[in-house]
Amino acid sequence: MGRVVILLLALSLIVERITEKILLLCPKANKGVYAWIISIGLGLIISFSFNFGFINELGLKSSSNVSQFVDYILTGILIACGSEPIHSIVQALSYKKEELKRKAKGV
């Protein structure tokens, strides 16, 4: 499972960087919308092109074409999320660390 999570993180970082470069060519208005369209498109292309499904890789296999299709779509969306969830977790841990430091000092 760890390899799958690392692969998802690596793919999401790659998609995030490619999206940032493509956004330089887009008009300034509605960059958020363009970013979502580009990143979801790239995520879906990756998941469908390489037959990479997160649920399938975890060992929950199904012979149904519909379940594989849903797996690829969910994987594409996970890849499209980029590293934002990781940044949020790191930021929350940083805040917690600072809070514990203040409590230790008695402030």
How would you portray this structure in words?
The chain has 107 residues and is mainly α. The chain has one domain (2-82). The protein contains 5 helices and no strands. Helix 2 packs across helix 4 (65-80). The longest helix has 22 residues, at 2-23. The protein is flat and about 60 Å long. The model has no long low-confidence stretch (mean pLDDT 84).
Describe the protein's topology.
Blueprint: H1 2-23, H2 31-49, H3 54-57, H4 65-80, H5 84-105
Distance between the termini: 42 Å
Following the backbone from N to C, one meets helices and strands in this order, namely HHHHH
Secondary-structure-derived class:
mainly alpha
- Structural shape: flat
What's the total number of strands? 0
- Low-confidence segments, given as residue ranges, are none
- Major sheet attributes: none
| Cα radius of gyration in angstroms | 18 Å
> What count of domains describes the coordinates?
1
Report the helical percentage: over 70%
Task: Work out the strand percent.
Answer: under 5%
Task: Give the mean pLDDT.
Answer: 84
By DSSP (H or I, 4+ residues per run), the number of helices equals: 5
User: So what's the oligomer here?
Assistant: single chain
Brief overview, please?
By secondary structure, the chain is mostly helical. Helices cover 78% and strands 0% of the residues. It is flat.
Which descriptors apply to this entry?
mainly alpha; single chain
